Every structure is written in C-alpha cells, then in structure tokens.
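In this section we walk through a basic example: taking a raw amino acid sequence and producing a predicted 3D structure, encoded as discrete structure tokens. The instruction is simple. Fold the sequence below.
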Amino acid sequence: MVQAGIVFGFDHDHKDVFDKTLEACERLGIDGATVSILTPFPKTPIYEQLKSEGRLLGEDWSRYNSKTAVAFKPKNMTADELFDGYRSFRRRFFSLGSFVRRMRVSRTNIAVNFIMNLGYRLGLLFSASGDKSVRPCRLL
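The resulting token sequence is shown next.
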C-alpha cells in the first residue's frame, strides 16, 4: 500500500500542479494521500525566507495549520488559488472515479483502501474547510 504525503504551495508550483499531481497519482496507483498546504512555521528556513521577502500574510496563528488557510503569498498563484486548488484536489482525489482509476493500477487491499478512502472522503464533509457548498450528512 502506498500512502503519499503531498504538499502544495512551493515556489515552483503553478496553477496546473493540482491537475498534474492528480494525474500522476492515478497513473501510479497511489492508494491514499495526506494532502497539505505548505505552511511556514516560525523558526524554520521557509518562514525566514518568506518573512524576508514580505510574503507572510500576518501572524494570525489560526492560519498556520496546513489545512484550512494559506499563511503566505505563493509565488506563481494567489493565496485563494492555492487554497481552492488544494480543496479541489482533495475532493477529486477522494472521489469514487479517482479511487477506481487508482485501484486499477494498485490492486492492493482493495477493501481496506476503499474504507480508508471513504473515511477521508467523509472527513471532507465534516472538515472546517470553509466550503459552504458541502453540508454534513447523517451516516445512520
């Protein structure tokens, strides 16, 4: 089973990184993924770099969680484009269609993978992602 750790927002990332990453995951048969937004935590080299370049969006520490907000100005897209691309990637990666495409390649523990991917998909429904178009649903 291959679980990928994917981080979006590096200086070499352009708006097409989300589509290209999804295509690669499906082509390679990636079973699951933990997806995050690059976050410049204090006292790290990336924090110091972005601070010196004037690219930090402030010190509201609620933005520094890698999941629900962008804490800096990306180089090749806007902060909104990064956040929207990240959310879109997660929705598409954990869709049934993407799961089927990835499992055609992986063929590893399909039942376990289905449950894992379903769990991530349901997590999207209950996350604090700010997506007002998604409403929690009852499971039982």
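Looking at the output, two observations stand out. The longest strand covers residues 3-8. The first helix runs from residue 17 to 28. In the next section we compare this with other chains.
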